[in-house]
Amino acid sequence: MMLHNSLLKGAPVPAAISNIVVFPRPMRDADRALLAAWVAAGRRMGLHDAAIVNAMPDGVAAPAMVVIWVRENPDPAYLVRFEGVGWTVVDQVRGTVLGRFGGFAEALVFIRPVLPVGAEVSSDSCR
After folding, report:
1. pLDDT tens-digit profile of 32-59?
2. How far apart are CA 18 and CA 1, in angstroms?
3. Do 62 and 56 form a contact (C-beta atoms < 8 A)?
4. Most CB atoms within 10 A, among 5, 54, 93, 108?
5. How far apart are CA 44 and CA 127, in angstroms?
6. Partner residues linked to 81 by β-bridges
7. How far apart are CA 104 and CA 31, in angstroms?
C-alpha cells in the first residue's frame, strides 16, 4: 500500500511512515497561566470560560485540548487542540477548522486578541 503526500506532489510515500505514534502533549504550567490570563482579559470581549481536557470520555489520554465558551452561546464555541507540531483552532458550532498555529498564544490571540502576541505571563500573575 502506498500513501500520497500532497507536499511531495504525488510522489509515493512508504506506508511505514503512517505507523508513527504521536504521544499526547500535556498542557504546561506556562500554557495554563496564559489561558487564565487570556480568559480574564477577554471577559469584556465576550469570553466566558475555558476548560483544559486531558482525557477522552472513555478515560484514554488525549492530546492537549482547550474548550472555550463565549457569552453568546451555552455550548462550547471553540476547541483548541495540539496536533503534530502546532495548535489547531476549531469552530465547535460549525465543526470547521479555522486555523493552525505554531504556538498556543497565537491560537488564543486568533480567537480574541486581548493579549499581545508573544506576551509572557507568569503563573504568579494568574492567582
Report:
1. 999 999 999 999 999 999 999 876 666 6
2. 11
3. yes
4. 108
5. 19
6. 65, 88
7. 7
CB 79 within 8 A of CB 87: no
Helix (H) or strand (E) holding 2: strand 2-4
Cell numbers given for 31:
500554557
Report pLDDT for 104. Answer: 92
CB 82 within 8 A of CB 75: no
* Rounded-to-integer distance, Cα 77 and Cα 47, Å: 10
Confidence band of 84 (pLDDT split at 50, 70, 90) = confident
Q: How many residues does the chain have?
A: 127
List, in sequence order, every beta strand (DSSP E) within 7-95: 12-14, 47-55, 61-70, 78-83, 86-91
Measured distance CA(107)–CA(99) in Å, rounded:
8
Q: Which three cell numbers stand for residue 74?
A: 451555552
Q: Are 50 and 65 in contact (CB under 8 A)?
A: no
Question: Burial, 68: exposed, middle or buried (Cβ in 10 Å; 0-12, 13-18, 19+)?
Answer: buried
